Amino acid sequence: MICVSLEEVRSNIDRIDNEIIKLIAERSDYVKQASGFKKSEDGVKAPNRVETVINKVRSKAEEYGANPDMVEKLYREMISSFINMEMDEFKRKQ
Questions:
Q1: Cα(68)–Cα(61) distance, rounded to whole angstroms?
Q2: CA dist., res. 82 & res. 33, Å (int)
Q3: Radius of gyration of the CA atoms of the chain, in A
Q4: Of 11, 64, 67, 81, which has fewest CB within 10 angstroms of its CB?
């Protein structure tokens, strides 16, 4: 979509940000649920799973025309935060 004004650009960015935040909240719910299936702190950290996700999102970034390095950096930060959240959930359930 080609925008005809800065206001239109900003409106679309705001719309996208809203969707991204809703999806992050949804992802958070699933991360919390995942902690109930994990048997150990190593299972929560799951480094092999992290790398699988990173490879997948880099591939999707290329497919959709996004910068794979930027997407990887964002996902590594997000995953790190989710792991910390999941670890708190895991410890609370012990």
A1: 5
A2: 12
A3: 17
A4: 64
Residue 72 burial by CB count (10 A; 0-12/13-18/19+): exposed, middle or buried?
middle
- Report d(CA 62, CA 69) in Å as an integer: 10
Task: Quick: pLDDT tens for 50-85.
Answer: 999 999 999 999 999 999 999 999 999 999 999 999
* Pairwise CA distance, residues 19 & 31, whole Å: 18
State residue 94's pLDDT score: 77
Alpha carbon distance 39, 25 (integer Å): 24
The dihedral of CA 26, 52, 87, 82: what is its sign?
A: negative
Tokens of 63: 């497919």
